[in-house]
Amino acid sequence: MQIDEQLAALLIFIALLFDFSDGLVARALHAYSDIGKQLDSLADVISFGVAPAFILINLFTYHVGHFDPSPVWLQYSSFLIPVFAALRLAKFNIDTRQGEIFFGLPTPSTGIFIASLPLIFLTNGFLKSYLSNGWALAAITVFLSAMMVAEIPLFSFKTKGGTAGTKRIQLIFIFISLLLVLFYEVSSVPMIIVLYIFLSVLGKKYFYSG
């Protein structure tokens, strides 16, 4: 069944806004509860795991299938996303280390990475040709799935204060991200996620001493 990819992508971006704002509201109202934490994770699995998986299946079926004779079974890699999103969120809920840093790529980052892909197909950017290859799309899926559960510390903007090194990394990230958006528009989204991972690995000594 073909879905409206652009609408699905838009809804995932809207879900990202709600995911960000519900935390702000909860902190402002001091409304914390264990059940709220679990429901928030369940919503994240749907928004940034299940929904992106449907987008991937659609891309494999209606885009890649027309331009690239890759094996049909590659499309089943899409199911890795909701599985590893659920694992990532379960780990996050019980991992006391993830207060001001993350271990593994946050599920919203994975969600918006995948949500940007059908929008890139509407452009004439250089990424479009790569995404039309089934093996490349499957590799992206496996990479994102692995990154969600990888024991790699990634910096967070939740850090209160932080070291000079942490702030420097954050400023570099923001500056380069703005440049990428300026020059590549929607195609910048996956590049920004990769940049986030790269800067975190490169500068982890500044925000993580474990």
Short description:
By secondary structure, the protein is mostly helical.
What does this structure look like?
There is one protein chain. With 210 residues, the protein is mainly α. It has one domain (5-157). It has eight helices and two strands. Strands 1-2 form a two-stranded antiparallel sheet. Helix 1 (5-29) runs antiparallel to helix 2 and helix 7 runs antiparallel to helix 8. The longest helix is centred in the first third of the chain and has 34 residues, at 34-67. The mean pLDDT is 87.
Mind sketching the topology for me?
Blueprint: H1 5-29, H2 34-67, H3 80-94, E1 101-103, H4 107-120, H5 127-131, H6 134-149, E2 153-155, H7 164-184, H8 188-202
Antiparallel strand pairs: 1-2
Entry keywords:
210 residues; mainly alpha; two-stranded antiparallel ribbon; 2 strands; 3% strand; globular
Query: How far apart, in Å, are the first and last alpha carbons?
Result: 47 Å
DSSP strand tally: 2
Q: Approximately how much beta-strand content do the residues carry? A: under 5%
Lateral arrangement of strands in the main beta sheet: 1-2
**H-E string:** HHHEHHHEHH
Low-confidence parts: none
Shape: globular
SS field, number of helical segments: 8
Mean pLDDT: 87
Quickly give the structural class. Answer: mainly alpha
Integer count of domains: 1
- How large is the radius of gyration? 17 Å
Helical residue percent band? 55-70%
Could you describe the largest sheet, including whether it forms a barrel? 2 strands, antiparallel
